[in-house]
Design a protein that fits this description.
The complex is a heterodimer of chains A (404) and B (236).
Chain A lengths: L1 H10 L3 H41 L2 E5 H5 L10 E2 L2 H5 L6 E14 L6 E8 L14 E4 L8 E5 H7 L6 E7 L5 E12 L4 H4 L2 E5 H7 L5 E2 L1 E6 L5 H7 L6 E5 L4 H8 L1 H29 L1 H9 L4 H37 L1 E2 L1 H4 L11 E2 L5 H27 L3 H6 L2
Parallel strand pairs in A: 4-9, 6-8
Antiparallel strand pairs in A: 1-11, 1-12, 2-10, 3-4, 3-11, 5-8, 6-9, 7-8, 13-14
Chain B lengths: L1 H8 L3 H12 L3 E12 L2 E12 L3 E8 L7 E5 L2 E5 L6 E4 L15 H5 L4 H4 E11 L2 E10 L8 E7 L5 E7 L5 E13 L2 E11 L5 E12 L10 H4 L3
Antiparallel strand pairs in B: 1-2, 1-13, 2-3, 3-4, 4-5, 5-6, 7-8, 8-9, 9-10, 10-11, 11-12, 12-13
Classes of the chains: A alpha+beta (404), B mainly beta (236).
Chain lengths: 404, 236
Amino acid sequence: MNLFRLAYRNFFRNTRRSLISGISVALAITAIIFARSYIRGIFQNMSGNVVKLVSGHITITTKEYERRERLIPIAESFELSEEFYASLPEKDIKIVSPRIKFGVLLGEEELSIPALGYAIDPEKERDIAGLQKRLVAGTYLRTGERDAILGKGLAERLNMTVGDTLTVITRTAYDSPTGLNFVIKGIFQIGIGGMDRSIFYIPLDVGQTMLDLEGRTTEVVILLNDPNKAVEVARSIRLGNDYAVTPYLYNPVLRWVNLAEVIYAFFYLIILLVACSAIANTMLMIVFERTKEIGMMKALGLNNLSIVGLLTIEASIIGVVGSFIGTIGGTILSYWLKYKGIDISMVSSTASADMPFGPIIYVAPTPFIIATGFLVGLLVTVIVALLPISRATRINPAKALKTI
Amino acid sequence: MLSVIVLLFAQTGTEILEKVDDNTVVTSWSYRAKMTISLGGTIREKEFIGYAIGKESAYMEFTYPARDKGTRFLKIGDEMWMYIPTVERATKIAGHMLRQSMMGSDFSYDDIVENRRLIELYDVELTGTEDIEGKECYVLQLTAKVPETSYYSRRMWVDKDIHAAVKVELYAKSGKLLKEVTTSEFISVSNYTFPTQIKMVNKLRRDTYTELKLEDVKLDINIPDRIFTKAYLERK
């Protein structure tokens, strides 16, 4: 108990030094809590975009389609049969929506602007892609109508607007030329440049007829009641060897972001070590300054354990105060930006469709991130301080008392 | 002495190819075509009519099945337009598309509309004789001498009796075999021995072939110029 009181008093013997050490720990912890929350926000944003615009929680295609997906092989289609729907576990599934992606060249006189068309079910996709919420002009798609909605960037490249006719010429699943005139009903802006510049949507049934794929599709996206069960539900779908059933977490970009966690952990460690060098330095100075005092305490009968205990408590006080302030700072900053969001549209407007992040990143702190931030701050402070503190155990009382 | 006589009567590769060209390169022609496309065991049939004048102008219009009916193509010089009835206007096709599959078949657009004398495009060498299905054939090796050919080299088996190619292998510059063409029927009209039943196998696709049967072939006829216009292509 006395050690605690002594350590507490010592903390104020050189208040400025203690505060500087504490602040460096605080800044590091704030940075780490914010960085972890921000990275989690980016991951959530990207997985949100991937789920909505790319894959749903689960994507079903044929194996051959998956293998050659970059080439958009629309001939690799499958029938939307009753048997197909029956093989999906109804209780876990919220929405099943077929999508057909097809490549086209657009343009007036000569076909020259490459674009990506998606034939989607307008009603089902309200709750998946949610494009009706992203319209910046006009209205949403209607089933059975030759409607099209275009990305803002694509509309600008084509110099077209709501009400204009969009001529789509492509090839059917059997490689015959095909085409239709669509009326541009709306213009959307997702905020991801690569998508806004190259994508347009048409109603599924019209797309199926145009592409000679009546009753068929090239992919089906599934939205689940519980996204956390994506892998489990994907495994439970038994469609045969010709099909590829892929949960969204297997999306290459998301896997890459997840893998990058290891790299981020390394950076956190560096931030922490830089901050802790301030504490190590403080403790080293304390041990040097108080050589005589420590010698005296030892001469009075205080054992090494108590000496280490006393100094460790001193370091811990700095650690606790620093980590606490840092945690408060990190929490306030992260939660503020959780609700306000960080607008990265300047960056995401030039981002490729393969890295679907943006336009607003909502920082995503969790109690776990905050608690571990505090504990790691405290633990690392003490561990780093132990090295200089251990010098104190080697102090010879007789020699120490002779020092001035 | 005997070898001198043989040499005197023997034809050079150039002479043989010129006779093949004389038999197939027409000043103008019209036809009806039935195309049977077999892909992975699925058979699809298409029908179209065509008109062409020289090597410059060609017109094609699909008449069957209903899905493709009214799809038209017009080639004038090096430019080609496509008309799809549901689009209601002609669209210019980029040059590279001419070498792509026509309507999902093993033929490219170029394979169908090309009407140039091979002797203008290829250096030719007679490499020997071989029997193809009981017919004695010259074997010619053709190598491109101008850059604008669809295929860099061709190996051609020419029936000695009728001077028409019964089999042709089409190669890329790398030496890769791209397509194999066999002709099983010909008609004799005026001075021509013209192929009417052609089978094309695209060696870059799996399990595929296309048979083209030409009917109602009329050679060296008068074709109104208005057919080779964008207005005719876009007519309702």
